[in-house]
Amino acid sequence: MKAGKLSQSVLCRSVLKQLHSKNDRVVLGAAFGTDACAIRVEPDEIQVLSVDPVTLSGVHIGKIAVCSALNDVAAMGASPVGVLSSILLPTSSNETQLRAIIKEMDETCAQMHAQILGGHTEVTRAVQEPVLTVTGVGVAKRDALLQLSNVRPGMDILVTKWVGLEGTAVIASEQEELLRARYSQPFLDKAKAYVLHMSVVPEAAVAAKSGACAMHDASEGGIFGALWEMAEAAGVGLQIDLKKIPIRQETIEICEFFDINPYKLASQGAMLIAAADGNAVASALAAEGIAATVIGKATDSNDRVLLCDGERRFLETPQTDELLHIERTRKD
Known about the structure:
With about 325 residues, the chain is an alpha+beta fold. Helix 2 packs parallel to helix 3 (about 95-110). The mean pLDDT is about 90. The chain has a 7-stranded mixed sheet, with helices on both faces. It has a 6-stranded mixed sheet with strand order 1-2-3-6-4-5, covered by helices on one side. Helix content is about 35%, strand content about 25%.
């Protein structure tokens, strides 16, 4: 199988269709496009959990892993509580590297008012690079739980901040020497600093109180992958204006350098939001200093359409993230 996320057909056929066990406390379980589960704790309270692996070569792996897990929790309308981690290190690692990962994880948790709850750390010959799997834990009131199935035709679709932030930061850090041949150091420093914007917990909290009906963290597979997952999970169509999708110049130029698609590039740090009144949600976010843009609408069609200068094209099922293409090129 190819590296990266499983295709939708393989995931549904070989994973989801094999899941038959049930528990009465489970409010929301495994489903395509759904990044977290929900468990009933008290009559009016839900525990939300999400798990994500990070297999980058090590650049900001701690921060990205914690953000990935807690972003998914926040997208359900829950308040983050903490994380559990499983860290697998290759034998080539040293204690200084481990300490750096843990320090970055702890600092990231503190920024989200969460904590590291526990986990497992191991050095193994089974991996060649660090593999960090983090489970995010949060809580929400039962009537405040947001699900992708809430999306209805006619709702506005918004994106917060800019797409491609995660991928841009990782590429600029890992490929800095190569990129320096074309770009200035201030340009690269700005691109690397996008790692500071990986959390969507602040915008999730504001949006949940301001009319958001559903949210989805745009991470692996980029904004195109996130849009497809939202539409598929909700059973709706989409009409998206490609030119309205917010993207930074640094992302555009770095993607052009490597001939990759910025809309299929890891976009953690951007939150996809569905709301009956997208402008009201965007205004509430703007009041908190968070950029948000209405990029289109959900429709009652099965088509997921991208509009650009009068031309229509259709979203494809999620593809391998462009970060993996660069990794493969670099290693080959």
